[in-house]
Amino acid sequence: MTFQRARRPEHKRQRYEAILAAARALGTRQGVRAVSLADIAGAVGVHKSALLRYFETREEIYLRIATEDWPDWVQGMRARLAGVAVGSVSEVAAALAATLAERPLLCDLLTHASLNLERNVSLDAARAYKRATVDALAAVAAEIRTVLPELSEDDAIELVGAVNAVAASLWQAAHPPPLMQALYEEEPDLRVANFPFEPTIARLAETLILGIRAR
């Protein structure tokens, strides 16, 4: 940007998008937990107080990014399941795992959403995020039912919600901080909970599907 203070509507919109882009890049590179409001302001090139004209808190910025990323995941699942043979449990499980693995920031955000992002935002921001979440789960569930029509709507939504909950936890275990990585390299027998993300999600998703179908 060539302007310091955004006054015109188009400049304000550019500043808004720049804040989200900077937060997204920092979160992807450093992990959401490590990024502060000051870090985002520095990346945008403004004082921290300038960010508060657009977002009330750091948590609101990341909750907004999560809100925007849900539809992208829906599109990813739709593309992945296109042409998959009806009844293919393994393909549905693989699609869930692959599309989440392709979206590392979303997986990281899933972890932090309930832990802290939802705890320091406005009611409007929380409502927008929850609405996007509900809509995304329903949309992905509908895509899954085109391949597994024997699942009820509630069954499919339960499956998608459960896979996301597991992914939120497993992402952190599968991507440990440098200290833990060094420890695992020195003592591999301690790597008991350091599961590979995508194959583990695929295996667990397939198990969930088979269990739901057997009820």
TrEMBL record:
The lineage's top-level taxon is Bacteria
| Taxonomic lineage of the native organism | Bacteria, Bacillati, Actinomycetota, Actinomycetes, Pseudonocardiales
Indicate whether DNA-binding appears among the record's keywords. Answer: yes
Q: Does the keyword DNA-binding apply?
A: yes
What organism is listed for this UniProt entry? Answer: Actinophytocola xanthii
Protein name in UniProt: HTH tetR-type domain-containing protein
Alphabetical UniProt keywords: DNA-binding
A GO molecular function annotation here is: transcription cis-regulatory region binding
Question: Which InterPro entries does the annotation name?
Answer: Homeodomain-like_sf (IPR009057), HTH-type_TetR-like_transc_reg (IPR050109), HTH_TetR (IPR001647), TetR_C_34 (IPR041483)
Pfam families, alphabetically? Answer: TetR_C_34, TetR_N
- Which residue range or ranges hold the HTH tetR-type domain? 13-73
Q: Which residues bind DNA?
A: 36-55
